[in-house]
Structure prediction request, 356 residues.
Amino acid sequence: MKSFVLVYERPTGKLDTMEFPEGQRHEAFALRSKLQRTAGPETEVVVFHANDLQELRSTHQRYFASVGEMIAKQHA
Amino acid sequence: MGDAPSRSQLVKIGKALAAGTETPEQLDVLDALLARCDEVQARARDDLAAALPRFPKQSSGPLDVRGRTKTLTTLREKLQRMGGQTLPVVRDLAGLRIVGDLLLHEQDELLTFACEALGVEVDQVRIIDRRAEPMRGYRALHAEFVLDGVRVELQIRTERQHAWAEIYERLGDALGREIRYPQEQTEPETSSSAAQTALAVVMIDHMERVSRSLDRIEQLAAMAGRLRSGVLRYEVDGVSIGDRLVRNAALTAELYEQARRELDALARILDRLKQRGEQP
Prediction:
């Protein structure tokens, strides 16, 4: 599985993602540790593991979609 | 990797994090602890991913298992809510989550199955059933246990529970995560923040009503599953199983419609906020 470091600003939903190839789990975690030291109080720096970003979009919608988009998806 | 930090060391770090006065050296210790949590949850995730295809359930849909290690931001917030001295007993530094198309009783069975797959004795597990006692509408089945010396929280959610939780968390991100812990609010309110709070309460009320509808839908689905499998015999007042299933389906459709109306009302509020250039 690849690793993804997500830098997510809660109030705005702004998201930056960094992708690490399979086998670089520790490198991803080290980057998370570094980034979160300087992150603001409303910013989350989180590491997830998935085959691709599309998979994460499905399993962790909160980081990728607005509330309105998530509701629309439920109606679809 | 060095020795695990002592309890007193963790208490000091927890207090410093809560106060925002942590030193780089304390963060180094915390990073090492979280890296250890990450290792443990990653191994556990892989073990669960290998075992879950053997879990018997009615739906053929897959079970998704994910792991995560708590972020510094959410850990700091938790320590501010609970008191910094609680760092040694924070139970979800390492987290696992299984989501799938599950009936309610399958959710319970999956908890036992997952613990066995991880080699955790069930009597060493603390179970928190948020279906029986929802928190602001949040429903799920949680288990807490120690794995390789690390406290782990396992969440088991049905797809409906997960979809609800995702919307609620995103709403919390936009409105302020204190909506998830309303009793913690300490700042005096200005008229503008009072209006925001009132709006947040309305939105949360919609979400709680959605949660109650989903709860009933899942109870009806569990009953239907048991009727179909013959586990449950339900013939009251001359109502056959077939008729019961038809009524069950009609009630389920009605509950979905109720949930849809609540979400629509929530979406309309969001649209108005967006038109005014306000989040979320």
Observations:
- The radius of gyration of chain A is 13 Å.
- Strands of chain A lie at 2-9, 15-20, 43-50.
- The CA atoms of residues 34 and 68 of chain A lie 33 Å apart.
- Helices of chain A lie at 25-38, 53-59, 67-75.
